[in-house]
Amino acid sequence: MLEYADLTAILPHRHPILQVDRVLEVEPGRRIVATKAVTGTEPCFAGLAEGLPQSAYAYPAALIVESLGQAGAVLWLLSARAAGETPKGTLVFGAARDFEFLGAAYPGDVLRHEVVVESLKPNSAVMRGETWVGERRIAVVGSMLAVARPDTELAAGPTG
Questions:
Q1: Among 82, 88, 144, residue whose Cα is nearest residue 116
Q2: CB 69: neighbour CB atoms within 10 A?
Q3: What is d(CA 131, CA 65) in angstroms, rounded to the nearest whole number?
Q4: CA contacts within 13 A on the Cβ side of 113
Q5: Mean pLDDT per 10-residue segment, the chain (160 residues)
Q6: Cβ distance 147 to 124 under 8 Å?
Q7: CA–CA dist 69, 155 (Å, integer)
Q8: Cis preceding-peptide flag for 150 (omega within 30 of 0)
Q9: Most exposed of 25, 93, 109, 117 (fewest Cβ within 10 Å)?
């Protein structure tokens, strides 16, 4: 199991962007199970008017995608470390295909991400995964691609 402090040693993200709280299981090169607790104090809920229905407090789909992607990043980095490698540069979420939202999460829910490796290369990773709240599967991604890009490429910005 990896706790929040362990995750801050692995990922460069910090509050409020760090979207993984704990790793329950990890098999480097194969799979990870990670969690993210959704609370009413999330920045995405700041400023909502009083008296809104529960549906107004649905955790944003983009943050579910980000959280699932960060779980995948932890898996990739731990897999590389176990193989004696280090992806060079900054990890970048490249794409997701066959993403389907089947439900929502609300304050008080705990997201459980289950991510499986499809392919790991020195500077790219392809994974698939699911997000659960208890026994409810709320999201599925058929494949997601992450790449490592040299920091100099990212600092330069777009060309042309």
A1: 144
A2: 24
A3: 9
A4: 31
A5: 96 94 98 98 95 97 97 96 90 93 98 97 94 98 94 68
A6: yes
A7: 22
A8: no
A9: 25
Which H helix or E strand runs over 138? strand 136-149
Residue 103: other Cβ atoms inside 10 A: 13
Task: Please give the pLDDT value at position 86.
Answer: 85
Global confidence as pTM: 0.92
Residue 88, pLDDT score:
86
What is the Cα–Cα distance from 38 to 59, expressed in whole angstroms? 8
User: In what order do the strands lie in the sheet containing 110-121?
Assistant: 22-27, 31-37, 110-121, 124-133, 136-149, 90-101
